[in-house]
Each structure stands twice: as C-alpha cells, then as structure tokens.
Design goal:
globular, 46% helix, three-stranded mixed sheet, 206 residues, 12% strand, Nitrile Hydratase, Chain A, alpha/beta
C-alpha cells in the first residue's frame, strides 16, 4: 500500500482538519506543506498526496495500492480473506462495512477491468460485484491509489457539527480501512452496508 502516510497519520489529519477550518483549507491548497507542518512528515520526491473534499451526500471510497509483497497469483477470494483477516477485531456495522470494502479492494487489485469500471461507472461496478441494486439517490465516487499517489478524503461536514465520537468515526476510529469510506451519510449512521442492502438483497460473500 502507499507509504506516504500511515492510516494512523491519516486519521490524525482528518480529525484535526474537521476541528480546524484553516488546516482543512491548507490541506486542500498545499497538502505536502500542510502534512510537513502538522506531522513533520516530508512527502518523498516523486510521490503525491492528493487531498479531496468529499461532496455532500456522496459516499467516497479509496482503493489503496496493492501491497508490493503480496503474491502476484493471489486469487480474489484469497485476497479478500486476507484483508478480512486483518479486520477480525472489528464488530457489528464496522465489520460489515469493512467486509464490503475488502471485497471491492481485492477485486480491484486482481482485476484490471473491474478497476476501470470502478473509475468510469462506480455505481454500476459495485452493483454488479455485490449483486445488489443501489438506490437511485445513492451517489458514489471512487479513487484509486497507486505506489506514487495517495488520496486523503475530507468529509463534507464541519467539526463544530460533530461530537467527539462522531469525529473519531469520521477520522477512522483507529481502523486502517474505515478512512476509505467517509461521507455525511455515514456520519448520520446510514452505514455503507445498510445502503448496499436497502432492498434486502442478501449480502454476497466471495
């Protein structure tokens, strides 16, 4: 995965930005300088940290770059299981959210055609992969990391609107994956998994 920022560093930046509008703007305008100022981390030459303001009422998903030490011949099912194994401590909705994310990430890592569909028409790609019908008003955007570029998503809500617990959830709650799925809809407790299963189609595992 990208080595520009660790998940913990991303969580720290997002939480600070949601409390500090000046920092939020600095991250959007000059992300490399803001990261060095806040964390003392210098973005390596040739690498890019792209900070994106998530649109309101849109679920924004980041697919991280594939780990360099993972076997090239790993199947989608094996990659999904391996990702889910890293999330074994998660419970309830967080676990279900991460299960869905793991399936989409594993498919993108192992299937270049699926990755292109995610970029071109993310809603259709996700609907097909999970065998579900997403609501008409469900808006989704997907960003793909690579070894030289990492995306950091800032949710579309202001810090003063959130409790400490909500801020922690937005920032990731300590999970390396939760940061990839940030939106005001999720902050309002409309979970990604709940959105996927609104029409009560059973969740499809790999």
């Amino acid at each position: 995965m990208s080595t520009i920022l660790t998940p913990q560093q991303v969580n720290t930046l997002v939480e600070r930005a949601m409390r500090d509008s000046a920092l939020k703007q600095a991250l959007l305008d000059h992300p490399h300088a803001a990261v060095q100022s806040q964390l003392g981390v210098e973005v390596p030459a040739g690498k890019t940290l792209r900070v994106i303001q998530a649109p309101a009422q849109t679920v924004t998903v980041v697919i991280p770059s594939r780990p360099a030490d993972w076997p090239d011949n790993l199947s989608v099912e094996a990659a999904t299981a391996r990702l889910r194994g890293d999330l074994a401590a998660q419970e309830g909705k967080a676990q279900r959210t991460n299960e869905v994310w793991s399936q989409l990430t594993a498919r993108a890592w192992q299937d270049a055609a699926f990755t292109q569909r995610l970029i071109q028409d993310p809603k259709a790609a996700v609907s097909q992969e999970l065998a579900v019908s997403l609501p008409n008003d469900f808006s989704l955007q997907v960003f793909i990391d690579d070894p030289d570029q990492q995306h950091l998503i800032l949710p579309s809500v202001e810090g003063e609107e959130l409790s400490d617990e909500q801020l922690e959830r937005v920032a990731g709650g300590g999970s390396p994956w939760r940061r990839s799925i940030d939106s005001s809809r999720i902050i309002d407790s409309i979970n990604w998994h709940d959105l996927v299963t609104l029409e009560r189609v059973p969740y499809v595992t790999s």
